[in-house]
Protein: YdbS-like PH domain-containing protein
Amino acid sequence: MSEPFDPADVTWSRVSPRLAAARITTTCIVFALPIAILVVIAVLTGELWVWVSAAVLALFVGWLVLLTRRQVRAIGYAERADDLLVRKGLMFRQLVVVPYGRMQYVDVTAGPLARKFGIASVQLHTASPATTATIDGLPPHEAARLRERLASRGEARLAGL
Structure:
C-alpha cells in the first residue's frame, strides 16, 4: 500500500538546492538588522537581558536555516501521463494534483534574488484558484522546458474536450 503523499508509481524530480541558499539569504537579511540593533544596545547598556535577546534571536535564525534546508529537500514534482504532481512540506505535507486539461496558463518568474542564485519559479493556473500550484527553485532552463511541456500538454488535453 502506498502512502498518500508518496504514490508508488511516481518518480519525483527535485528542485535546485540553490533555493535553500536563496531562502536562507532572505532570512539572514531580515534578521540581521534586529540582531545588530540588539547587540549595539547591549554594548551601550551592558544589560544581560539584551545580550540574551540577541542570542535567542540568533539561535532562532540558526533553527530557521536548518529548517529551510529540510523544507527544500521535501519539495518535489512529477510529470505523469494525465497530470502533474507537486508535493511540499515537512510537518504539514501537501500534495497537489493538477490535471493537464484543467491548466489555463503557466507562468515562469524570477525576481532579482532568484536570478542571482540561478533559479526560477513555475506557477500553474487552473480554472479553480484553489488548485493553483507553484514549483519554486528550478534552474531557468528546466523552468522553460517545464513551461513548454505543460503548456503543450494542457492544449492537447483541452483540444480533446
